[in-house]
Amino acid sequence: MGVGLGVVVHLLMGAFIDLSPDEAHYALYASHLDWSYYDHPPLVGWLQWVFLQTGGANIAMRVVPMLAWVLTAWGVMRLSDALYPQIAQSSVLGLRMDLLLLLLSPIPHLLGFALTPDTLLMPLTCWVMWLTWQLCQPDAVPSPKPAQRHSNKHVDIHSNRLMTWLLLGLALGLAGLAKYTAVLLALGVVLVLCRYRGWRWLLQLGPWLAFALAFLCVMPVLYWNAIHDWASFVYQANHAAGTQAWQARKLLLYVVVVVISFGLLVPWALRHVAPRFFVASFGLPGVLLLFYLSGRGSTLPHWIAPFFVAMLPMVAAGAVVLVAKHSRTVRLVLVVQALICMAMFALMLAGGFASESDKQSRTAPGVGVDEAPKNPFADLHGWSQAAERGMHWAKEKNVSTLAVTNWTLASRIAWYARPIPVKVVNAHGDQFDIWFGRFAAHEDAIWIDWSLMSFTPPVSDKQFARCDVLENLSVQVAGRQIAHFNLSHCQDWQGPSE
After folding, report:
1. pTM, whole model, 2 decimals?
2. More confident position, 159 or 446
C-alpha cells in the first residue's frame, strides 16, 4: 500500500508540472545520444531514449524515475530484512518503519518523478549492497554425504558465488554509467569485504572478473573524455572544489536542509542504534564528503540521496527502538514530516506562494521593480509555453536559432523547442556548445529572458547589434502571475563565432 501511495503521488506531480532544469538537461541527453556528456555519464540519457520515442511527453519522461523509486523501496526492504529483521516485525501507522521513512522523505520523492543520476544511483546502491552482503556470508558447509554429492555441492557453491561476483561487477559498472560518485560504492565494497572476509578474497578469480566487467561498462565514459580533452573529469573536479573559501556556516545550513529534506527523525534515530560497519561503509563516506564540500557551497541536497538510502535500514532500526521508548513523540515528528511533504507538493503544483505585482508583471529584460519575488517554485511552470512562443516567433521572423543568456536557462527551452538549437550568449564551453555550437557571424536569434533570472539585452560590440522585444508572456498558475518571459528578436551577432 505504501509503495502504491508513492507512485500515485509521483504520477500526479509528473503530469501537472514541467520538467525541472536537471530533468530537461538529462532528457536532452536522449535526443543527442552519445558515449558520454560534459557533466555526467550517459545512463540517464540512454534510458530516456526509449521513452523519447513515444513523443517525449512530460509523464513519459518520468516513467524511469518512478520505476527507480519503486525498486529503491523494494531494495531497502530486502536489505532491512537481512540486516535488521526487527524492522519487519513492527509497524507505525500500518507501515514498516523503513518504508515509512522513505515515504516521508521529500528528496527521494522528488527523485521519484524527476530523473537525475542520483535517481538511478538509489536502486543501484541497494543492489550493490545486497550482492556484497551475499558475498560476505560464509560458504555453506555441506553435510556428510557420498564423495560425488560433496563434489557437486562444492561446484554449485563456487558457480553461485562466481555469478554473484559478475552481477556485482555489472551493478558497479551501471552505477559508474550513472554518476561519478559511484566510485564510493566500490570503496564500500572493498571496505566491507576486507572486514568480513579478510584479504584473501583478492586472490580469487571472482573479484577480478567483476572489476573487468565494471571497467568494460564504463569504457564509453573514458572514450568520450579521451576525445574531449577529459572535459567531464576536469569539470567535476573544479565543481567539487568550489569557488569560495570553506565556511562552517554553509556546512551548518546544508546539514539543516538535509535533515528537513530527508527526515527530522534521522539524527535522533541514529543515536538509538549501534553503528553497523556494513551500512556505514556504503553511506558514511559519501555523507562526510558532501558535508565537507558543502562548506564551499558546491553541493546540492539531492546528491546525498543514494547515501541516505544506503543508511536507511540502520536509521529505521533506530527508529523502531525510538517508537518503543517515545511512541507519542515519534508519531508527532512523523506527522510533522508528512506535513512538510504535503506542503512541498502543494507549493510545487500551485507555483509557490509569491506573485508578481502589476508593475513587476510588465518589466522589460534586466529591469526589476522593487526586485521580483523570490519564488523557487515558479521555476517549474511556463517553460513549455515560452518554448512554443519562441518557435512561433522564429518562424515569423525567419530565424533558425533560439537564445538565452545563461546556460541554466537553456535546458527547458531546448527540450520543449527541440530540434531548434538553443545557444547560450554567455557560453563557457559547456554541453550546449557541444550540442549547438556558437553563434555564426551576423546570425539572428529569438532571445528568451525569464523575469526571475533576468538579464539586460545582449547588445554590445561583442554581442548582438540590436534586440527588439516581441512579446511579454505571463506565467499564470491558480489565477496568479508568478513570473513572465520576454521574447526578443536579436539581430546581427557581433561577437566571437564558431
Report:
1. 0.91
2. 446
